[in-house]
Specification:
With about 160 residues, the chain is an alpha/beta fold. The protein has one domain (about 5-160): Rossmann fold (3-Layer(aba) Sandwich), CATH 3.40.50. The chain has seven helices and four strands. It has helices at about 10-20, 25-35, 50-65, 80-95, 110-120, 130-140, 155-160; strands at about 75, 100-105, 125-130, 150-155. A four-stranded parallel β-sheet has the order 2-3-1-4, with helices on both faces. Helix 3 packs across helix 4. The protein is globular, with a radius of gyration of 15 Å.
Length: about 160
């Protein structure tokens, strides 16, 4: 199935094409329509099958043209590396549509903390966070997730294994 068959925003389709993708993977074919219909999805697929695109593409499509001052989507991932990887994919796909995102993870310097805090307070559209760093920000009391529309737990099994 081609991405154009999902009735996605033209600018998002342009970004998908620019990144070299034309055809959806099986997990994307199954998940994207469900997420576009605002249905909950529990998906399991092997590494490298397009799971990230399966949840990021419909979320980005729903965020096109919405300008808000709160976090719309929270993606929780087990590792800094995965947070960075997903954030990079979001940046590439969101390039033409003006959706903001930030990766929130540990191991940085004070500038990273302030940048993360600013995004959490002023409302980046999408936050990709590791549990530990997200919890650190939450415990300080300035994070407000009352308006979250989308919650993604990527590799939830790994997060549960890690404790």
């Amino acid at each position: 199935m081609k991405f154009s068959e999902f009735n996605l925003n033209e600018q998002l389709l342009e970004a998908i094409s620019y990144m070299g993708f034309e055809t959806a993977t099986p997990i994307q074919e199954q998940a994207i329509p469900c997420i576009l219909d605002n249905r909950d999805v529990l998906a399991c697929a092997q590494t490298g099958t397009g799971k990230t695109g399966a949840f990021v593409l419909p979320i980005l499509n729903m965020l096109v043209g919405k300008h808000s001052s709160h976090v719309d989507t929270l993606i929780v991932v087990p590792t800094r590396e995965l947070a960075i990887q997903i954030e990079q994919q979001i940046e590439g796909l969101a390039y033409f549509i003006g959706v903001s995102s930030i990766a929130v993870y540990g191991g940085g310097d004070g500038k990273d903390w302030e940048r993360q805090k600013d995004a959490l307070v002023t409302g980046a559209d999408i936050i990709v966070a590791t549990p530990g760093k997200l919890l650190s920000h939450l415990q300080l009391g300035y994070v407000n997730f009352k308006n979250i529309k989308h919650l993604v737990l990527d590799e939830a099994d790994r997060m549960l294994d890690m404790g």
